[in-house]
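dude i think i finally got it to work??
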Amino acid sequence: MGATASIFGLQLVYHNHAHEFEVVDGITLFDILLDHTDRELVVFQPDLGWLAVAGHDPVQLFRRYPGRFPLWHLRDIDAATKKSTAIGNGMIDFSSAFASQDLAGLQYAIVEMASDAEDPLGKILASHKAIESWL
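look at this
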């Protein structure tokens, strides 16, 4: 599919959720995807919130597959409510991820705020401030 996308000037990008980190025969489904795709044709957009929910450290993923993650999906999760919150106000350690942005190959980070969040614009502005502090 990555080769077909490239014919049309597109690049195939895969975005994870938590279920890709289930272990099957000693390996996660996400590792299978990364190990069996051409790095020139397929890149990955890790959702750092879902990585945390699945119990995985993004920095370990970046070390294992350097340069495969040019897009990041930033979602922070309130530890008590398990709902989306402003980046930097939840349980996700974004500072260590941003410290490894070159290793990951980061080009763009996309903030997600759940549609049911209270004061979504305020939370996005607060997220912007937090992200600026890590860059």
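DSSP finds seven helices and eight strands in the chain.
im so relieved honestly
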